[in-house]
Please model this.
Amino acid sequence: MKKTILILGAGEEQAIAIKLAQNMGIRVIAVDGNPKAVGLKIADVGIYADIKDTDKMLSIAKKYKVNGVMTHAVEIPQIVAKIAENLGLPGIRREVAERATNKLKRIICFKKNGIPHPNFKTARTIKEAEQKSEKIGFPVVVKPIDNAGSRGVIKVNTRKEIRKAFSEAKSFSKKNIILIEKYLEGPEISTESVIYKKKIYTPCWADRNYSKKELYYPYMIEDGGDLPTVLSKKNKELVEKTVKMAIKALGINFGAAKGDILIHRGTPYIIEMAARTSGGRFCDTKVPLSNGVNILKPLINMHVGNKINPTELKPKYELGVSERTIIPEPGKIISIRGIKKAQKMTGVYKIYMKPEIKIGGYVRPIRNHANKVGYIVAIGNTQKTAVEIAERAVKLIKIKTVDKKRHQHKN
Model:
């Protein structure tokens, strides 16, 4: 009989997973809190509901007698895990999902298990944050323990900057505690792993790009990423070893694990290891373009109880892929030029723009990944070629805005 999967989230990125599952002959029940979510229209059954309402999601899973439950690029592994655990479906335990999602529980786990991580403290008040930041030593990074997408993640260079950073981080949290980490310098890498039958496969790698970090300061936001990684063989082996250690320490024994790693003075430090797939079309678009591996397919099969062939997770070729962010000045949009010209460039795969980026719309200050208005994905024979194409294409796009308060034109 045809198997059924419940996919939580039905936005543009989740729609990729919905279509793929359907192409694999699997019936899809999709749920999203936005009644206009594109995935609700294409799913076999589209349901408008809050995906964070665990009891509601559990009742939907029971009603449609699903064979599996998953999400893609959404920070809700605890909810997926609870449904899977309640119904005896493939997945990780709830406590594992919580440990891999809560930044404080995660970094404590790393400390207990000897996984390299930034020195850290916690604070409940501004005064406590000031004192503990000085104890760690500036610069530090202040962040909420229960949010994703770089929301509320702020670099702090001096004690006088703590008050504002603490308050902003707190505004993105439902907890009464904030995490403070030592700021480390070094190249950063994104990885995506699949855990299947006690083995960890890591076919997804990218070098995170921070060449425009001065435009975002004090917010910790990258300007895109590049594939394949240019890490040396030695450093890649070190990172892969550390990634495996982190996954095992957290107890992630099934499904996806998304990692952010920073190499500081020759040592890979785990900045993040989440029990989910990444957003930004990393694993569903950029990695398949670069090496032919789309981990969504084996993950979908795993979640409905189908066997997979590990060779699906082995890179098949190597091409350069680069993403660069489009960064207009904040304000009301009065003109947009260059998108069609950029799209026609040889090597430009696709330009992703938010629907609200149109004449009369507004550009918000970029303080986290959710604020980004768009980005370009380019392909080349090498990483260097792809980067050159992406950066040339970004320069062609001109979004002119006028400041809402001063009514001055901004280029």
Summary: The chain has 14 helices and 20 strands. Residues 322-410 form a domain with the D-amino Acid Aminotransferase; Chain A, domain 1 fold (CATH 3.30.470.20).
